[in-house]
Design goal:
The structure is a single chain. With about 270 residues, the chain is α+β, with helices and mostly antiparallel strands. It folds into four domains: about 50 residues; about 110 residues, Band 7 domain (Tetrahydropterin Synthase, Chain A, 2-Layer Sandwich), CATH 3.30.479; about 50 residues; about 40 residues, no CATH class. Helices cover about 50% and strands about 20% of the residues. The strands form three sheets. A three-stranded antiparallel beta sheet has the order 3-2-5. Strands 6-7-8 form a three-stranded antiparallel beta sheet. Strands 1-4 form a two-stranded antiparallel ribbon. It is elongated, with a radius of gyration of 47 Å. The model has no long low-confidence stretch (mean pLDDT about 80). Keywords: Membrane, Transmembrane, Transmembrane helix.
Length: about 270
């Protein structure tokens, strides 16, 4: 009876040690995640091997795994203050869609760490936005150049962050806020320009209509001129005789013809 507890104690201790080692030697990586292995006695962060994938992983108990979210993520920079080309303060709302480069996850962890969002992405997007917006006037920011500005911010930020092992998927300029007085002035100018374009359109339309009337009138005049030139005295006399005959044959007409006119046509005195 005295020997049993002495034998059982080492077994219990061994079981505890095994459980602890198993707990230290296993890691569960969730969906959309990947792990960076840190070898305590083998060179630190592993950068020359693929990151650990999803699921249950076994590692040496003295090593450690840093888990990263590899899905697309979004950071929203609200009311970011920038200056236009003429020095006016503009407020931007910008969304950045990003994710770590899976193939270079070890290098990202080694050089930037888990807080790479605040170390790389946020400072770069702010710096690039200020640089890009500073090339444009408030009017361009408000109206015609929104898409161009968005594309420039994306391309320039991408060039800066991708060498730092971060994949930039998109940059969206969600809102541009101008000082109220500048916004009102721009809206008035745009309205005046629109009214001017409408007035010019009406003038062009009226000019085209007038030209159409002139062309139609000229065509009729030319036709009449050609017709007049083709009508000889003999043709007119024949036409007059035909008309007189038809009038005399009408049941509702009484025609008295006396002599003839200077042109040789009959003279019509009445048709009652």
């Amino acid at each position: 009876m005295d020997k049993l507890p002495k034998i059982g104690l080492p077994i219990i201790i061994a079981i505890v040690i095994i459980v602890v080692l198993l707990a230290k030697s296993s890691v569960n990586i969730g969906y959309g995640e990947a792990g960076v292995l840190f070898k305590t006695f083998g060179g630190g962060v592993v950068t020359d091997e693929p990151a650990l994938g999803e699921g249950f992983q076994i590692i040496a108990p003295w090593n450690k795994v840093y888990i990263y979210n590899t899905k697309q993520q979004e950071v929203f920079e609200k009311k970011m203050q920038v200056l236009s080309s003429n020095g006016l303060e503009i407020s931007l709302d910008v969304s950045v869609l990003y994710q770590p480069q899976l193939a270079n996850l070890g290098l990202l962890h080694q050089t930037k760490g888990e807080n790479y969002l605040d170390i790389v992405i946020v400072p770069e997007i702010r710096a690039v936005a200020r640089s890009v917006v500073g090339r444009y006037t408030p009017e361009q920011l408000y109206s015609t150049k929104r898409d161009a500005i968005q594309n420039e911010i994306y391309e320039e930020t991408k060039r800066k962050v991708e060498p730092q092992y971060i994949q930039l998927n998109s940059v969206l300029v969600r809102d541009v806020t101008l000082p109220p007085t500048i916004k009102q002035a721009i809206e008035r100018k745009l309205k005046q320009e629109q009214e001017s374009l409408e007035y010019e359109f009406r003038l062009v339309t009226a000019a085209k209509e007038a030209q159409k009337v002139i062309i139609e009138a000229q065509g009729k005049a030319d036709a009449n001129k050609i017709l007049s030139a083709s009508l000889t005295d003999k043709i007119l006399q024949d036409k007059g005789i035909e008309a007189t005959v038809k009038l005399s044959e009408s049941a509702n007409s009484k025609v008295i013809v006396i002599g003839s006119g200077d042109s040789g046509m009959p003279i019509i005195l009445g048709n009652q």
